[in-house]
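User: We ran a pulldown and think these components assemble together. Before we commit to crystallization trials, I'd like a predicted model of the whole complex to look at. Sequences follow.
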Amino acid sequence: MTSVVATNQTILVVGGGISGMTAALEAAETGKQVVLVEKNPYLGGRTAQLYRYFPKMCHPTCGLEINLRRLKANPRIQVLTLAEVTGISGSKGDYTVNVKIAPRFVNENCTACGECAKAVTAEIDDAFNYNLGKIKAAYLPHAMAYPQRYVLDPSIIGTADAEKARAACKYNAIDLNQKEEQVSLKAGAIVWATGWQPYDAEKITPYRYGEFPNVITNVEFERLADPHGPTGGKILRPSDGKEAKNIAFIQCAGSRDENHLRHCSRFCCMGSLKQTHYVQEKYGDEGKSTIYYIDIRAIDRFEDFYAKVKANPNVSFVKSKVARISQDKDGNPVCWGVNTEGYKRYSNTHDLVVLAVGMEPAVKGVDIPAEVMSDSSGFIMADPKNAGIFGAGCATNALDVNRAVQSATAAALRAIQVVNKVARAEA
Amino acid sequence: MSDLNQQMAVRYKNNFLKEIEEQAEMGNWVKMCMQCGVCSGSCPTNFHPGWEHPPQEIFMMIRAGKRDEVLNSQSMWMCTSCYNCYVRCPRKLPITHIMHGIAEYAYRLGRAPKMQPTLHLSKAFWNNCTKNGRVNEVKLTQSLYFKDGLMAGIKMGLAMKDVALGLVKAKRLNIMEALGGGHKCKDVNGIHKMLAKARELEAKRKGRQPA
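Assistant: Here's a predicted model for the assembly, 638 residues in total across the polymer chains.
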């Protein structure tokens, strides 16, 4: 049974991505008690799934490692993984929250030795790599996963595979009797940091994502470029495993579009500019990138990053929203449209098309079990009606990592003010 | 060129965007275009001759005040009303309707290209349909087939005779309508009154003399 120590001076943080981790750490480091609830079996969220950050082109694992060290060193944070909030009642300064915890089937004895994965034969979709490959049904979500413990997929429970995994474990870490738990806890304030999801590219029908194997999304491209990804860091196209050296990036795939996402997702221009670096890095002068754009929004101080990419002769820019994509007999995607600089028609053949899909709030269409105001895109707005519930990171707006961290720090501060008030009232 | 053309050119001096917004149907949407180019890329007439300016270029020309170039253009008349641009436009501009609105306005000003087949069809259909409140298929077909002369019309008629016979058999076409006035709606006068009223209201809304 999971035990959680929480009072109405505790801050609950929902979502353990970069925003949730930041909010939890900032609050805990001022001396507050924090419970961090994460749906996945690991922390880090979508940041952990990136290959590199812009603008410095460093690896997210580095930033995450710093946060994980802060987390491990802080006794005031309790982390619940595989956990989801199912109900919130009460009011600002006195919430009661119900949390559902799914079984991991692996306990604290796990040393991440990997013997269970060797024993198991069943395979499941590799969700961490956006289902680009398969993994064993006993798995460590990713190399830097925290908690550093394996997970047994519920699909093998009750099968011979589960028994094999249990038998293979030398540390008595596999517990097949774990059950789903319901935990109720108190909280004074809640930080809602459930992040974002990539827009469903299949809805942009002229781009034929899901139908043409060589049309992929920007988040999938991150995994292709990552040495820990399904291709070991080689940029190979899905249809035939050929090296993709001529890559098209289509901006505003879903964003700034009344038929899809109303808002500008902000990060995708920088994301694609960053990804042209991957192409350059892997293939040198043989790697060609073409960016199709409406306008490049290299927000804030990133204009010089854009200028540098623009100066690269291997990167070309076409000012046009691609109208449609077709496929030639060799499986190459062909982009059709009109270049609005001079109104020239084009039909360009590429090895691979990367759709720079936008950010959709993960809270969209999900019932937050409390009254929380959201804008027309589904992002949480700052509103007095939200009382002691504060949005943070990409649950509130389309943000890059840098801005998400700022937003999370701000949310932590607001939550701290609420629990301070509670503390003063009770003193 | 018509008096209306002169009148409008004076009224909207140097502000063609405003002229289109107020005078062309759906013209008030033009300023919403963000020049992404998806309409042009989606246009099926894209790779055909005669396609001078794609929609988004037309919209930019309107904003740039290129009055003569826009009003004399063939482009609006090339629209096949496939609605690809309309459904794909990220700003939800009713592009197909805007193109028709500009075309109609150019025609009202007497600026539409002469002998334009789409214009010819539109006029023939409108006159035919509003006369009796019902379309006289035989006369409409005749006016289209014989547009380019007697021999061309006969040739076209022969080429289409199987289709015509099929329509006759299915009672969708009555050959006798070539002689008489054709079928009518119950209240032809009522239709004419409604159209006259609509014209009056349009003229009032657009600040023009009733046509």
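Residues 54 and 63 of chain B are 15 Å apart (CA to CA). That may be worth checking against your pulldown data before setting up trials.

User: Thanks, that helps.
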